[in-house]
Amino acid sequence: PSWNGYPLSIFIIIINEFCERFSYYGMKAVLVLYFKYFLQWDDNLSTTIYHTFVALCYLTPILGAVIADSWLGKFLTIVSLSVVYTVGQAVMAVSSINDLTDQNRDGSPDNIQLHIALSMLGLILIALGTGGIKPCVSAFGGDQFEDDQEKQRSRFFSIFYLSINAGSLLSTIITPILRAQECGIHSKQRCYPLAFGVPAALMAVSLVVFIAGSRMYKKAQPQGNIMIQVFQCIGFAIKNRFRHRSKEFPKREHWLDWASEKYDKRLIAQTKMVLKVLFLYIPLPMFWALFDQQGSRWTLQATTMDGNFVAIQIQPDQMQTVNPILIIIMVPVVDTVVYPLIKKCKINFTPLRKITVGMFLASLAFVAAALVQVQIDKTIPVFPTAEQSQIKIINLGTDNVTVRFEPQLHNATLTSMELTDYMTFKTTQLQSLSITSGNKTTSEDIKLPGGKRHTLGIKNNMTGIVAKWLLDNVTSKPEEGNNLIRFINNLPGPINVTMGKTSFGKVMPLSASNYSVFSGGREDIIYIVGDFTYCSGISKPFGFGSAYTIVINECAAYNLTVTYSEDIPANTVHMAWQIPQYFILTCAEVVFSVTGLEFSYSQAPSNMKAVLQAGWLLTVAVGNIIVLIVAGASKLNEQWAEYVLFAALLLVVCIVFAVMATFYTYVDPNEIEAQLDEEEKQFKKDRDVYENQAEAVSRM
Fold this sequence. Notes:
Layout: E1 2-3, E2 6-7, H1 9-38, H2 43-72, H3 74-95, H4 112-143, H5 150-180, E3 182-183, E4 189-190, H6 192-212, H7 226-243, H8 265-281, H9 285-291, H10 297-302, E5 308-309, E6 312-313, H11 322-344, H12 351-379, E7 388-395, E8 401-406, E9 410-414, E10 423-426, E11 432-437, E12 440-445, E13 452-461, E14 464-472, E15 483-489, E16 495-499, E17 502-507, E18 516-518, E19 525-530, E20 534-538, E21 547-556, E22 559-568, H13 579-603, H14 609-634, H15 639-662, H16 669-699
Parallel strand pairs: 7-13, 15-21
Antiparallel strand pairs: 1-2, 3-4, 5-6, 7-10, 8-9, 8-11, 11-12, 13-14, 15-18, 16-17, 16-19, 19-20, 21-22
């Protein structure tokens, strides 16, 4: 069956691809944050496992191609590996259910090792599934057309590529929103089961839709894998050359010519062309090492930034959508505007030059990321080391207060409700302090633990000066852009404090509650209930990644008066500052990736395009392995320095590639194959003449 000249089966294949790409990119978008916040891994381990997974996804296509071409055929390979894929997605969704092992219902898993084991199993199955079907689906779609439907086949590949980008774009917008929801049976947590569950459901839909169209498909039988033949040819040439290494055997023009005893001239010539291109691929993995950090390091960078876009709150993992949006815009702009302009300027912008420019732009994108990171680092407060203590003073009374830290370390004078910033002291030097307010003076010895922050609340009341030490047990910025809030009761009697839906319990006079977590970018209603008091008020809007102490000063006539003390400043560098680095990297992708595939196809023999496709995917896998090696070996403490290191490495590789490219001679595979056809015809003709002559001689 067909519609407008198109086989109906291709529409099923396009729906299948959309669902599969939604499933993959949706799961991948939230993956690094799942590692960091659910499995409680640090940034380095999260990045390592993320890139190991991506590398595995790009290594398995070779396995999928071999299975499809040599054993099961494309249809059965897609079905069987899609089942593996769906099971993997389902296992990931189950692994993220907090209540699975939360026996004591405290909001955190009791058996984190089980969750890690399930996650790793799920990711291995997904890598086998997505990688295994990657080389099969587009080729299977191409198989549905007749030989005379070249125009329709070309349009199919365009729509197929569009479905990949549509699935990627939608999933990267939707799954972070699902992740940001709160769900759970016993305690409310970030909803990773939903964020992984929806991609799992889409993968199941993809599988059902694909199987439903089974009777419509043209299913080509396995023809044997050309990749295996290429490897066998190379292997035999090396082995044969090694056997004939003594000087008595004459040298051959090319080392692959040593395979001529077993393999025909055509296969050897085609393998030479392929190896020539694969040699140029050697520097390319460095580009992917930078490109794929969008989903790891750049997403982690976004967690330390302000995501408030006017009325919309952008999640850190949603910043990845900038790439597919820009791709959809940039590909036609570059093709219809940029390249024609370069041509008009009489510049010979060859494919290899485009790839070189792409590598340079990617290096530039990481310089931009480093500059943003430097600005972010300026907003991160300095926390005390193990030998230091930090002290903040709040004057909770109505009289002025002067505090002296002895022996002659620091003096501070504060008016009513005034507070200082954190002051840093060497713990061993802090011995005592004296406080003067009005005509009263008091002093006390100090013995504070190192590596901690403290707030000193001071109040001069009728009975004398009261000094209350409060431990500020927060020594890092809150994660995921959340805020930490606590209250100090500056009223004469005990009160119960509630903010939004969070109860802080009973807070005694001149005491502080514990910190509680609130999501960023919002304001809440504060309720105060005392023995004879009740009041409420709306808090100020809090930013992202801050910590505040709210002092309750007055609760009269239902009106609430408070003072805000900023313990940790909010994230002030806006996520929009990531857009330039995404823009530069997307420009790099357009001139690098699209050109690279086009160049590979133009330089590959007709039956060897799959081999170069496998080689291209292999560069992505190796690129992700490079991230593991460089990030593990560099031991850099500053994130901006790691960005600069990657930028410098790619710049060096870019120069090496530019030099290699100058020695490359472009070939026309069709011309070479036509020449081989001509030689084969001539050989056949000569053989026929020889056989006829031999037959004539035998008759005489």
